[in-house]
Amino acid sequence: MYLTDKLKQLKQENAISMHVPGHKNMTIGSLDQLEWTHDMTEITGLDDLHSPEGVLLKLNAFLSGKHPGYHAQAMVNGTTAGILSAIFAVRGEIGRFVVVGDAHKSVYHGLEIAGTPFVTVAFDELYNMDVGDSAVIITYPSYNGTVDPRMAEIIEHVGSTDGISIIDEAHGAHFGVTGNFPQSALEFGADIVIQSYHKMLPALTGASVAFTREKDVHRSMMKYIDYFETSSPSYLILASIELAHQFYNEFDDELFFSQRETLIKSMEGRGFSIIETDDPAKVTLNMEGLSPYALFDALDRAGIYSEMVTDAGVLWCLPLFHRGDRYPLEALLERLTNLTITQSRRGTKSEDLDFLLGKTAVRSVVPYPPGVPLIHEGERFTEEVIRTIIHKKSYHVKMEGIEDNIECYKVDEDS
Ligand SMILES: Cc1ncc(COP(=O)(O)O)c(C=O)c1O
């Protein structure tokens, strides 16, 4: 057995999670209320996710309580299916899409299959743009937890010119949980907001919720969610959304902030430098004299698994500590004390990819995580893109799509 053994091994090692999903190996939240026997299907009494009239309609009504004036739909195929659905839901209403800043690959996948024109712009450019005929797709917050303070203004600007705002809030399902966290775009009146409940809240992987303001947009979203999402939804995931939502409603941040402070202080005492950001549940770690990749590897070896590593540092998604949680904070602090640091062997091998220069990408190249494309299919490889790919590959960052390009053009070269 391959995967099963690997998962068992991680459990045996008492792997410590500083990554998504937010239940942190079932130590946060109350998913222990669920049992394998709850993996049911749409039998009598369990409703129909794509045409809800009973218990799932009630679940959606519960979720829509997150902010007055929104419809909600629980989803089991992640924010990815929500983004695809949102693009299709509004494309008939607008002339083009405007993609703001770095966007997740699902945005580009949706735009490609919808075939609707789009432009990509920086956040600042939006102010001076006429977006009346556009649907504006904004990622809020960023993967590492930063938020643009002008978000409310921008959503207002889009709405006041009759544009449509679609907010990829994959990393912000916990926003607004208390006043000490950033506000959700739901607070700013965005038209469509899609949140991955599984990332920062204690829900099962795949759990997301789509929020829509207008009834017509909601109806259209429901049509396309039905197109893109499995017709056999996992009731375990759906129930986990309900439990995570209840967690959100009842969360008291006092213990979270005190445990967070204990952790940060203790790490600083051990020589870590901690970069805090707008989202208090995200921190980026570094250690002087050590590459972030070596730090990431050292943490892995100690059984502490991080969310992501980039040149900026190691990204951690902190647990939403709460009274009665089972998160192994003591064990974490002990492992950090005994951390064995060695310089990384990564970054030593430099591959020759110059043969890609000027060639047209046959597949988008996407460093994963974070899943933001570096070059899109159909674009030409520039020197800068090639240098970035070589650098990331040398640090063993997963690069989706690169092998297809290498295979395509390397053969050409060799023949
Ligand atoms: C910014 C962003 N948007 C969307 C997604 C897709 O979310 P999901 O994994 O829920 O499909 C991700 C996943 O990492 C993401 O980082």
From TrEMBL:
SUPFAM superfamilies: Ornithine decarboxylase C-terminal domain, PLP-dependent transferases
All copies of domain Orn/Lys/Arg decarboxylases family 1 pyridoxal-P attachment site, residue ranges: 3-116, 135-249
Domain of life of the source: Bacteria
Single GO molecular function: carboxy-lyase activity
Cofactor(s), names only, from the UniProt record: pyridoxal 5'-phosphate
InterPro entries hit by this protein: Orn/Lys/Arg_deCO2ase_major_dom, Orn_Lys_Arg_decarboxylase-I, Prn/Lys/Arg_de-COase_C, Prn/Lys/Arg_de-COase_C_sf, PyrdxlP-dep_Trfase, PyrdxlP-dep_Trfase_major
Start and end residues of each Orn/Lys/Arg decarboxylase C-terminal domain: 348-407
Ranges annotated as spanning the membrane: none
Keywords tagged on the record: Decarboxylase, Lyase, Pyridoxal phosphate
Family the entry assigns: Belongs to the Orn/Lys/Arg decarboxylase class-I family.
Protein name per its UniProtKB record: Orn/Lys/Arg decarboxylase, C-terminal domain
Organism: Lacicoccus alkaliphilus DSM 16010
